[in-house]
Amino acid sequence: MGIYDFKAKTIDGHEQSLADFRGQTLLIVNTASGCGFTPQYKGLEQLYETYKDRKFTVLGFPCNQFGKQESGSEADIKSFCEMNFGVKFPLFAKIDVKGPKAHPLYQYLVKEKPGFIFKDIKWNFTKFLVDKDGRVVKRYAPTVKPEAITADIEKLLKG
Question: Is pLDDT at 159 greater than 80 in this prediction?
């Protein structure tokens, strides 16, 4: 099983296969609108805008498991992200990223790149970098700002 075998519901309620992103470098992020890391949306959008023409995409997965920081509806989340941060990268419907109801994609991501101390996702804005062949190559803690990932993205895009 690989990254392209998974599907997820978009923020607009449509089922989307991750196979649609085959051949692209991806940054997969669990997000929240009411978190101290929420301003990272701006950096994520900046990465997306900078590299989208080079086959790079950010995929945002809202999650309400950490401090109930994503309690709004999908429409609320989409509106918040567009109005406050100009988000144009793909957003998906809210999911669980840890525990027994974790989305299969996140079960896979954590298995491929477990955390340093804790295997599971420990907070919003944990990031996974995936190469164009669908391999999970790196995991970043929530405290790692999107702009700090630029060199790793560049390396994958050149490879």
Answer: no
pTM for the predicted model, two decimal places: 0.95
Query: Over the stretch 122-135, which tens digit does the pLDDT of each residue have?
Result: 899 999 999 999 99
Q: Give the residue carrying structure tokens 């790793």.
A: 152
Domain count within the chain? 1
Question: Residue 125 contacts by C-beta under 8 Å, 6 or more apart in sequence?
Answer: 29, 30, 31, 32, 35, 37, 40, 142
**Which CATH number belongs to the domain containing residue 8 in this structure?**
3.40.30.10
Q: Is 124 exposed, middle or buried (0-12, 13-18, 19+ CB in 10 A)?
A: buried
Residue of 45, 73, 67, 56 lying closest to 146 (CA atoms): 45
> Which residues are designated catalytic?
35
- Structural domain including 103 reads 3-158
What's the CA gap between 135 and 26, in Å, rounded?
10
